[in-house]
Design a protein that fits this description.
The structure holds two protein chains of two kinds. Chain A is mainly α. Chain A is built from 15 helices and four strands. Helices cover 39% and strands 23% of the residues of chain B. Chain B has a six-stranded mixed sheet, with helices on both faces. In chain B, strands 2-1-4-5 form a four-stranded antiparallel sheet, covered by helices on one side. Classes of the chains: A mainly alpha, B alpha/beta. At the A-B interface, α8, α9 and α10 of A face α3, α4, α5 and α6 of B.
Chain lengths: 347, 274
């Protein structure tokens, strides 16, 4: 298939998606819309973490930290001075921040850039260690961020968090950012730079002996991944209308890791589909946490039962589908074309 | 800058061949163990040097020292007159040294084609933005990479397996793929670490021809580590024999075959001589 045909088809798909978004914004049930928004944010997070964990093979547990930085930075920039006043009643917000208010888009970008900066600062020393050690160091980073945000009261309002954030996040924003994330990361992965990243994942020594600068490329993956995590954090803050440091705990990172493992490491399609599916499943599975009557036995509602189900699901995946649900299969127009051809043959 | 400096001094006269690689008093100690001791070599352009010795003699260590996978303890390594002793691995590769590995190190999750394409990354001129935006400059480079990859696959005879996973190839072909991948970094000096290991006699013969052919075509200087004497004696012009990190002999293949020290190192001699 020609490249121009593929681009054309992709553009058409994007237009169709936006038409869907237009009607959804008008008619869709707000509850479903909210879940869909959450799902798309999960998708952004999963795709960006996949660049670090799946394609470059650097097992990072720091994603919630990058998200927190993005969420707080953007929230402090797009909140109105009045809301900030009412939030910071214990200790006032430090000087220039309490008067600034900039548009949502720029707030997201700056949030992303701050997270990317953190990705660079963390990446530089962290990437001297490998494997399990890297996981521990990045986990440490994410906990340090949480602890810092809990204590920097004059910037983050401490454990009280920020409340009453304006709701800018809607499907237009989440869909657009998901598309941008997918395109950018897909392009990186398919380029010569992506080959270098995958080479590092497969064999660091061989990659280095082909002249690939390990450090530079690992930091590259971290910075790009952190940027999109920061943006996703900003979107999530505005969707939930409230953020506090403890919502960006390691549990959040685990959820994202679960999504990329279920979808398949190094599989963008898997990350997106499972990310959106995860949000819906999380809502749908709420019933398991309610009190239930099974065969006459009364079971009281246990909080966290949903996560148990996901754990079982994860274990089953690891046991029976090592490569995740999607494995190596990526969405491609060639694949779609083949599907149609097969149908025709059958008829 | 660095690359230019290398280019400038190449002599055209065939008699005065330029020194490609020079190792002076190179020593490597792992704690108390001396892996390589006072190793010296002066390698001229186009030469094919064989490096032999019993297991644990320090042959692979010398390759690791040249490409700075491990740092030298003492001594100096020069490549085209430039001191590369302290340069990082990726810089050294960029200058024009390529190597293969004793235990094949392919990118197992990638296809044959991708394995070779990866090696072109070292000389990629487009920055990340140009590549992500797929600007014309990058498109040209990508096309160039595709075309060169195809040529290299043909060179070693694996073009029919382009889209196969590299780990699915038989052993002999994996070795060839590794050579093709090393060639993709456009080296001036090629280090081959036991290229014939695990090959049958036919494949070995073919490999000999391949090594000689690529040396001619890509104007390479080559160092080969090999246990298979059929390879080493047939293709090398000069051989260095190592034993326990010490250079025990140096000379042409026929000289080496008659050297009593070499025979002793390989076969062992009764106690009265020891």
């Amino acid at each position: 298939m020609k490249r121009s045909t593929r681009v054309l088809l992709s553009l058409m798909l994007i237009i169709v998606i936006y038409i869907f978004v237009y009607f959804s914004e008008l008619h869709m049930d707000p509850f479903i819309k909210r879940i869909l928004n959450t799902g798309l944010i999960y998708a952004i997070l999963a795709v960006s973490l996949n660049l670090i964990n799946g394609f470059t093979g650097q097992f990072s547990l720091g994603h919630a930290g990058f998200m927190a930085i993005g969420a707080y930075t953007s929230a402090l920039l797009y909140m109105s001075p009045e809301t900030k006043m009412s939030n910071f009643f214990m200790i006032p917000l430090i000087s220039p921040l309490d008067r600034i208010q900039i548009p949502f888009f720029w707030a997201l970008i700056i949030g992303g850039l701050m997270a990317a900066g953190a990705g660079f600062i963390v990446g530089a020393p962290c990437l001297r260690v490998r494997g399990d050690y890297l996981a521990i160091v990045t986990y440490g980073f994410s906990e340090i961020i949480r602890s810092l945000f809990n204590n920097l009261q004059n910037i983050t309002n401490g454990p009280l968090g920020l409340k009453g954030l304006p709701t800018y996040t809607n499907l237009w924003w989440t869909v657009s950012w998901t598309i941008v994330t997918i395109i950018v990361i897909k392009r990186i992965v398919d380029s010569s730079y992506g080959r270098a990243l995958k080479a590092i994942r497969d064999d660091e020594v061989a990659a280095e002996n082909l002249g690939i600068n390990l450090f530079k490329h690992k930091v590259l993956a971290f910075v790009v991944g952190a940027f999109f995590a920061g943006v996703a954090g900003g979107l999530l803050g505005s969707l939930l209308m409230t953020i506090d440091p403890n919502s960006f705990s390691i549990l959040f990172t685990y959820q994202i890791i679960m999504i990329i493992l279920l979808g398949g490491l190094g599989n963008i399609t898997g990350s997106v589909v499972v990310g959106i599916g995860f949000a819906f499943l999380m809502e749908w599975l709420r019933f398991v946490e309610m009190p239930m009557h099974i065969f006459g036995i009364e079971i009281p509602g246990i909080l966290g039962m949903r996560m148990l189900i996901f754990s079982v699901l994860l274990m089953l995946t690891i046991l029976f589908f090592r490569q995740g649900i999607f494995g190596q299969r990526e969405f491609s127009w060639e694949g779609v074309a083949k599907l149609f051809q097969k149908r025709k043959v059958k008829e | 800058m660095i690359l230019q400096a290398v280019e400038v001094e190449r002599t055209t006269e065939p008699n005065v061949r330029q020194t490609v690689l020079k190792l002076e008093h190179v020593t490597k100690k792992f704690g108390g163990l001396v892996a390589v001791s006072d190793f010296n070599v002066d390698l001229k352009e186009g030469e094919l040097l064989g490096l032999i010795g019993p297991n644990g003699a320090g042959k692979t260590t010398i390759f690791n020292l040249i490409t700075h996978v491990i740092p030298v303890t003492e001594g100096k390594i020069e490549f085209y007159g430039k001191d590369i002793t302290k340069l990082s691995t990726d810089r050294i590769i960029k200058l024009g040294i390529a190597r293969t590995f004793q235990n094949i190190r392919l990118f197992s999750n990638m296809s044959v084609k991708e394995n070779i394409m990866t090696a072109f990354h070292v000389h990629l001129k487009s920055d990340l933005f140009t590549a992500v935006a797929f600007l014309p400059k990058y498109r040209e480079e990508e096309e160039f990479i595709q075309q060169k990859t195809w040529e290299l696959m043909k060179e070693v005879g694996i073009e029919h397996l382009a889209d196969h996973k590299s780990s699915s190839l038989p052993y002999g072909l994996q070795r060839k793929l590794e050579i093709a991948r090393a060639l993709a970094t456009s080296p001036k000096l090629l280090l081959l670490d036991e290229p014939a290991a695990g090959m049958n006699p036919d494949e070995t013969l073919e490999l000999n021809q391949l090594i000689l052919r690529i040396r001619e075509r890509y104007k390479l200087t080559v160092i080969v580590i090999e246990h298979d004497m059929k390879v080493i004696m047939n293709i090398s012009e000069r051989i260095i024999v190592l034993d326990h990190g010490v250079t025990i002999a140096e000379g042409t293949p026929s000289e080496i075959q008659q050297n009593p020290l070499v025979i002793k190192a390989y076969l062992g001699v009764g106690d009265e001589d020891a």
